[in-house]
Amino acid sequence: MQTIFKTGAIALIFILICQFANGQNKDVKAITTLLAAQVEEWNKGHIEGYMHGYWENDSLLFIGSKGPRYGYDITLKRYKEAYPDTAHMGKLTSTITRIQKLSGKYYFIVGKWALQRSVGDVSGSYTLLLHKIKKKWVIIADHSS
After folding, report:
1. Residues 112, 39 contacting (CB under 8 angstroms)
2. pLDDT in tens for each of the 145 residues of the chain?
3. Of 3, 46, 65, 79, whose CB count within 10 A is highest?
């Protein structure tokens, strides 16, 4: 009887671990899909499409070379000013170097970005804080340098 109990307990623990990992994998897949879609939109020259990954809220935080800025509309305006045409946008590559789950609703991402452009190549690093809002992952804070 003890053997059956131990086997059942081990099976239950295994099932719970698999369910936890599967839930985590779904989140990681959703986040990486979101970030890949941003790269695709950028490379089409669609800044508005790229912005779909961001939280459409006045509390969105973007930190770039000119310091922190708040708000979706301000971030969109800043992107349009910095990248007025496809020559300035170039072709974006993004490499995620770390994905860290902070909780069931928050992930922290570290990565590198590069733009290959006719007006001069640029590259840097980024950190992102993503939050699950209404069952959708969105970037709520972006620090790109």
Report:
1. no
2. 555 544 444 433 443 333 444 445 999 999 999 999 999 999 999 999 999 999 999 999 999 998 999 999 999 999 999 999 999 999 999 999 999 999 999 999 999 999 999 999 999 999 999 999 999 999 999 999 9
3. 79
Whats the size of the chain, residue-wise? 145
The Cα–Cα gap between 73 and 46 comes to 15
Domain residue extents for the chain: 2-144
Q: Are 108 and 128 in contact (CB under 8 A)?
A: yes
Q: Give the other-Cβ count within 10 Å of 67's Cβ.
A: 7
Tell me yes or no: is domain 2-144 CATH 3.90.79.10.
no
The string over 7-20, giving b where at least 16 C-beta atoms fall within 10 Å of a residue's C-beta and e elsewhere, is eeeeeeeeeeeeee
User: 93: left (phi > 0), else alpha (psi -120 to 50), else beta?
Assistant: beta
